[in-house]
Structures are given as structure tokens and as C-alpha cells.
């Protein structure tokens, strides 16, 4: 609605509301409000113009005077300057009874929004104040702190290794059991475990058993034979439950009697003598890795390959770490699923010598161009894991081995992140004291387990230091 239309509508309202006696100074009754456009000169009296202007202000502004008039009795009239009179005491036209919608609620909302915006600006520092001071104060304090502690640091070296059953060895059929000695009639399956007295393979349906020991049978043993192989035989016979003889290194009649009893249980001819082909000697129970012999063939050459029954960890250790491994040394093994088990070094081999070149390269190339190997010398190391269940279902896997390399006892240490590099070299720590934060130079020692050994003036147990992000 435009301004003239608005004035016209309100004029009609006034015409309806005004008293019949109200009018111009001449006493004539006013029936309509004459519309005056811009530039025209009103012929009405000054009082009428003032009255129209006042009503226009009342409608558009809805200020406090409207609320004041609405609170008065219906018989109340405007007077003086507020009523638009000329000051001569003439009674002005009555105020219209039509109530207009107040804007008090809108004004309150606008004022509240302005107050909230001002408060937010003050909080965020738009208008200055304490915000920057707080930020500066917090920036001067380390985000985290830690205390200097006295402890024992152990440096470890982590190397790659392999979990498995160790190197496989080959079981050869004895030369005496060559062609014409029979036929292989049974072989085990890969993964089978063979224990003392169990069959390694069968020849002519007769078992060739496993016996424990360190010296293989290399000759025919009979009454009157002496030696370590005799001792091995008698120890195994006793372990299998045969008796009536003295376990020593002498083969006598009582030993022969026990042997005949053993041969009968194996389904063999009871000769009382033992040939090299009658048994296979190994250090303990074995796990079949691969079967080489074929049933129906003569018992000659490789029969099976086997390993130990327990999983071990093998490492080709770089020779630079040779000084940190020895039999009995403790280590920690981390499996592919990040679980860990304890291990112990059981064997340390001799360093390998890297190849200077291969024969094919040397033969086919000129001097200096032979296929020299870039492999480094390594040290073979084996570790035993007592907690076999802790290894889970892993049969073979790549693992990480942590070996203890160095230990420093009773030293002062802080988190590595507490070190602050100084200009010109060296390190310092931020000592947090009652009078502020001070940079104190320190001498660093061994690094281990995210900690570092430190020493220097003013660095004692319990000193609080900053740990920057």
C-alpha cells in the first residue's frame, strides 16, 4: 500500500470515528478528509493539519504515546502540544477508538538481539579486551608437563625373523639296505609326528623305528661290542620298557636278550644283533616335512625330510649385532596379530661369508664385471619359545624380534618430546617453576622406550618439564 492510499484509508476511519460536532473552526461538520498531494497548499486550518500529521505518526511509529492514549478512559482527549492544538484552549477532535496493533513485542525482540550481538562481540574480542591477554597467557605455558624420573633404561634392537619348525633334515636309507634289501611298503604323511619307537617307514612290512640319540647307528652291534652307539641302544630299550640289562656302553648277553624281545615285537627275525638299517636315530620327536620315498621302490636314497615338533624362531642376524646375542639371551617376539611371546636364544651359528661373485658371471664377463653379490654377512640365530600355545595357529610367519642391546640403571629420564633443540646445537628442557618457565640446557644419554637419559644443572628427580606438542 502506498503512502497516499494509506492516508486515504485512515482518513475514512477518522470520518467514521469523529463526533458530529467536530469540524473546522467555522463550526461546519467535517464529513471527509481532503487529500493533499505533494506541492499543494492545504486550505484547512493549522489545527487540522496538525491533527492529521499526528495520526500519521501514531499509525507508523506506534510509539509510546499510542500506548499511553490507549490506557486512558474513552472520554479523554489530547491537549496542548501533544494533541496538536494551537494552544488557545480550543477542544481538539476526539481520538479514534479503533485500536491499532502495537509493535512493542517487535521492539523488544530487536533490542534483545542487539544486546546479544553486543555481548557476543565482547566475548570474541571484536571490541578488544581480555581475549588476547588470555591467549597470550596460555601460549606461555607448555600444553603438557612431565616429571623427571629416576629409572632403568633398556635399549633394544628389533630385527626380522621367521617363525616355523626350523630347518628340515633328510633321512637317508642306509647303504646296507640298498637294492635287493627289500621294498618300501609304507611311508608317513607330511605333518605327521613320529615319536620314540614309532615307524619312520616300513620295508617288507617291517617297521624301521625312531630312537632318540646323538650318534646314529653305523655298525652292526652284537655281544662284545662297546661304544656310544651301544649306550644309545640300551637307553632306548630301557625307555621303551625292556629290562634285564644294565644301561652302559657294553653290549653283552643280557643286552642281546632284550634285543630279541624287541625284534619280536617289531615282527622281525629274532637275531639278537642290530644293524644300521634297523633304526633311525634323531635328537627327539620329529615332524614330517616332506616325503621323498615312493612305496614299491627299493629303500635307497632320501626317504623323508623332517623337523622338530616345536615351532622356533630363526633369524639371519646382521653381524653388527653379534655382540648382543648369546645363548640364554632373552627376547620378545611380536606375531603378525601384534601379540607377543617371550623367547630365548638357544643357538648362535657362525657368520656367513658373502659371495664375491658367482662362477657363471665370472666365466661370462670381463674382470671386475662378474656377478658380485651384494648380500651382507649374517649370523644364524635360533630362539626357543616355551609358550607354544601363545603362538596360536601360526605354522609359519614373518615376525619381529626385540633383542636387549644395552641397559642403563638408575638414570634420570624424561619423555623424548620434552627435548627442545637449541640454537647452535644441543638440547634443553622447559623447566616449569613457580616464577615461570625456564629453558635449562641438558646433556642427553641413551634413548629407549620413548624416554631419554638427561643430566644437567637443576635437573633432579621430580623436576617438572614441559612437553610441547
Automatic annotation (TrEMBL):
User: Where along the chain is composition biased (Gly residues)?
Assistant: 362-371
Question: Where in the numbering of this chain does the Peptidoglycan binding-like domain appear?
Answer: 227-273
Indicate yes or no for the key word Transmembrane: yes
The UniProt annotation puts the region (Disordered) at 1-100, 342-380
Compositional bias (Polar residues) at which positions? 342-354
Protein keywords:
Membrane, Transmembrane, Transmembrane helix
The Basic and acidic residues compositionally biased stretches are 1-13, 41-61
Annotated coiled-coil positions are none
Query: What's this protein's name?
Result: Peptidoglycan binding-like domain-containing protein
